[in-house]
TrEMBL record:
Domain Rieske: 67-159
Gene3D superfamilies: Rieske [2Fe-2S] iron-sulphur domain (2.102.10.10)
Example GO molecular function: oxidoreductase activity, acting on paired donors, with incorporation or reduction of molecular oxygen
UniProt xrefs under Pfam families: Rieske (PF00355)
InterPro entries, sorted: Rieske_2Fe-2S, Rieske_2Fe-2S_sf, TAT_signal
Compositional bias (Low complexity): 39-59
Natural source organism: Micromonospora sagamiensis
Stretch list, region Disordered: 37-65
Name of this chain's protein: Nitrite reductase/ring-hydroxylating ferredoxin subunit
Origin superkingdom: Bacteria
PROSITE patterns named among the record's database cross-references: RIESKE, TAT
Keywords, alphabetical: 2Fe-2S, Iron, Iron-sulfur, Metal-binding
Length: 160
C-alpha cells in the first residue's frame, strides 16, 4: 500500500526520518569543526583579521622557537589572529603593541571566530570585544574577554 508521497508502510517512513536525522546531525557536527580548526576556516590555519593577511599554522620566522605561537609580522596592525587550539587570541591594536586574550566569549562560552574592524567577534550571538583591552563593544556579552599573558621575544610571540 502506498500513500500520497509514494512511501509504503510505517517502517519505510521511520527509515526515511532516521536517515534525514542522521544527515542533519552530520551537517551540524561538521559545521562545529574540531578544537584545532577555527570556525569557518576549513583548515588548521588560524583565523586572522586585517586586509590581505592569511597566516598558516606554521607561520612565523624562526623554527627554533618551538614554543612560539606566531611571528610578529603575521599579526596585522589593527587586527589579530585567533589560535583556538592554543587558547589565545593575539592582537596588534597599534604598530608594535601586542595583546593576548581568551578565545572564549564571556556570553555563552562560544569560541570567538573572527576579527574585523578593531573588534574580536563571536558569531554565535554577535558579541564584539575590543582588540585593545578585550572590553565589550557590543552584543549580549557583559564581561570583557580575559587577558592572556604573552611574551614578545624578538620577532616571535609566545604564551608567558
Amino acid at each position: 500500500m502506498s500513500d500520497d508521497n509514494g512511501l509504503t508502510g510505517p517502517a519505510t517512513r521511520r527509515t526515511l526520518l532516521a536517515g534525514a536525522g542522521a544527515v542533519g546531525a552530520a551537517v551540524v557536527l561538521t559545521a562545529c569543526g574540531g578544537d584545532d580548526e577555527p570556525a569557518g576556516s576549513g583548515s588548521a590555519a588560524p583565523t586572522s583579521g586585517g586586509p590581505g593577511v592569511s597566516p598558516s599554522a606554521d607561520a612565523g620566522g624562526d623554527r627554533g622557537a618551538a614554543d612560539a605561537i606566531v611571528g610578529t609580522a603575521d599579526v596585522p596592525v589593527g587586527g589579530g589572529v585567533i589560535f583556538a587550539s592554543k587558547g589565545v587570541v593575539i592582537t596588534q591594536p597599534s604598530a608594535g603593541v601586542f595583546k593576548g586574550f581568551s578565545p572564549i566569549c564571556t556570553h555563552q562560552k562560544c569560541p570567538v571566530s573572527r576579527i574585523d574592524g578593531g573588534t574580536i567577534i563571536c558569531t554565535c550571538h554577535n558579541s564584539k570585544f575590543s582588540i585593545e583591552d578585550g572590553s565589550v563593544k557590543g552584543g549580549p556579552a557583559k564581561q570583557p574577554l580575559p587577558a592572556k599573558e604573552i611574551v614578545v621575544d624578538g620577532d616571535q610571540i609566545r604564551l608567558a
